[in-house]
Write a structure and sequence with these properties.
The chain is of the alpha/beta class and 447 residues long. It folds into four domains: 132 residues, Cobalamin-binding domain (Rossmann fold), CATH 3.40.50; 119 residues, 2-Layer Sandwich (Transcription Regulator spoIIAA), CATH 3.30.750; 90 residues, Transcription Regulator spoIIAA (2-Layer Sandwich), CATH 3.30.750.200; 54 residues. The protein has 13 helices and 20 strands. Strands 2-1-3-4-5-6 form a six-stranded parallel sheet, with helices on both faces.
């Protein structure tokens, strides 16, 4: 039991870097501290505690984490600074030596934040209460439940953590540990709580969520079926699914469900079989192409987003051209393009040749241009069609936006009473910067 008296009248500032999973986990950490008596700092206030949840997927992410630590120290002088997340797990001693950092908590210790922080506040002069507390990745076994609200319309539910795929370029298994998950029943209960709070849409998050079931003996399809039966939730979206883990049963179930949206996010990483082999991925382009065909056959209007990495060690110009040509032929709606980043301790460092930064930049530009064309083509195919949009509150003086079932962004004049409501609309042409579709004439989007 943690003595919470030391938290009374304390204010905390939260910094989150990286993926949606990190944002979900930060929300849980904030809830734990709020229940102990800590309130979130308001604009203009100086915090007593700074909680920084970090990412380490690239070298740039590491740099942003260090910048966030420096920024927290400047904005909140005298605050106790706690750093957790992937960067904290991978580089704990280096972070602990940074000026102003009091605690570094690894993946296994993250969920015990109140206990470590209480010890520090109660015994500020005791050096044993400060520094880095990190377990080896083989000992990362706990699963910390997490469900956060990104605005009032979309919740992020953590269903799985860790990864058993040791791709040659990636440190995530070292930062997150082995694949593990919560029981289906507990996740179903969390979805029920979201519905009770008025939430309409839940995004399922994790590190490798298609690998769901390693710790409970359940299957991913079991989770989908259970969540589909939760009253009050109108929409589910599934975050990144590895292509070799998307079975026909999952595709068929999502196609038949009224709650699971026709929206997939699938990491390809490369359209070259040789680069996929260097990456130690578990599929080839033939499997990926057949997967896209299967999804489109079941859901003709599906939105498919694809992750791709450019500039991987060993990616020659001809191998990149294979990726570009494969993607040009493929039917998808958007690319998420990442430049390969050197990660200490990964097998990829043994691969040659190295791709120069300027070449990575040019390859990224080519794929981003291709992505823009594919997205606009996808949007154009839906102009004039009927759709259902879940609206999100707008910032003062800005238009209101929402998303269709198949993830087309829609813009309309602000109408606060539509916040967190789903309405039937007819889609018109593009807005001024071509990032969303407008409502067609007469398609007001009112209930």
């Amino acid at each position: 039991m943690v003595d919470t008296s030391c938290f009374q009248d304390k204010k905390a500032a939260y910094y989150t870097l990286g993926c949606k999973l990190n944002f979900s986990e930060t929300s849980t950490l904030a809830r734990l501290l709020r229940e102990a008596g800590v309130r979130e700092v308001r604009r203009g206030e100086v915090a007593d505690l700074c909680i920084i949840n970090t990412c380490s997927v690239t070298e740039v992410a590491d740099k942003k984490c260090r910048q966030a630590i420096h920024a927290a120290r400047r904005r909140h002088p005298g605050a106790r600074i706690v750093v957790t997340g992937c960067y904290a797990q991978l580089k704990p001693e280096a972070i602990a030596r940074m000026e102003g950092v009091d605690l570094v908590l690894g993946a296994e210790q993250k969920g015990q934040l109140p206990r470590y922080l209480a010890r520090l506040l109660e015994h500020p002069a005791d050096e044993s209460c400060r520094g880095a507390f990190v377990s080896p990745f083989r000992d990362i076994r706990s699963f910390a439940p997490s469900c956060s609200c990104g605005g009032r319309t979309r919740y992020f539910l953590k269903v799985q953590d860790g990864c058993d795929y040791f791709c040659s370029y990636c440190t995530i298994p070292l930062a997150r540990g082995r694949s593990r998950n919560a029981p289906v029943r507990s996740l179903q209960e969390q979805a029920g709580k979201v519905a009770a709070e008025g939430g309409k849409e839940i995004v399922l998050t994790g590190v490798n969520i298609g690998d769901f079931g390693k710790t409970t003996g359940e299957r991913f399809i079991d989770l989908l079926r259970a969540l589909d039966g939760v009253e009050g939730i109108e929409r589910y979206r599934v975050s990144s699914l590895e292509p070799d883990l998307i079975g026909g049963d999952v595709i068929d179930f999502m196609a038949a469900s009224r709650k699971f949206m026709p929206h997939f996010h699938i990491p390809l990483q490369s359209g070259s079989d040789e680069v996929l082999r260097l990456m130690r991925r578990r599929y080839d382009t033939a499997l990926f192409a057949s997967l896209l065909d299967r999804i489109h056959a079941a859901m003709p209007d599906v939105f498919i987003g694809i992750d791709v990495i450019v500039g991987m060690r060993g990616e020659t110009e001809s191998l990149f051209r294979e990726t570009y040509d494969f993607l040009s032929r493929s039917d998808f709606a958007q690319l998420h393009v990442f430049s390969y980043s050197e990660r200490p301790g990964t097998k990829a460092l043994q691969i040659t040749p190295i791709v120069p930064p300027e070449v990575k930049h040019e390859r990224s530009r080519l794929l981003l241009d291709l992505s823009e064309k594919k997205t606009k083509d996808f949007y154009r195919r839906h102009i004039g069609r009927a759709a259902r949009v879940l609206w999100e509150h707008a910032r003062p003086g800005e238009p209101m936006h929402g998303f269709t079932e198949n993830y087309i962004r829609v813009e309309r004049p602000d109408c606060p009473e539509l916040d967190n409501h789903i309405t039937d609309v007819r889609l018109g042409g593009f807005n001024s910067d071509e990032t969303a579709l407008l409502l067609a004439s007469g398609g007001s989007g009112q209930d």
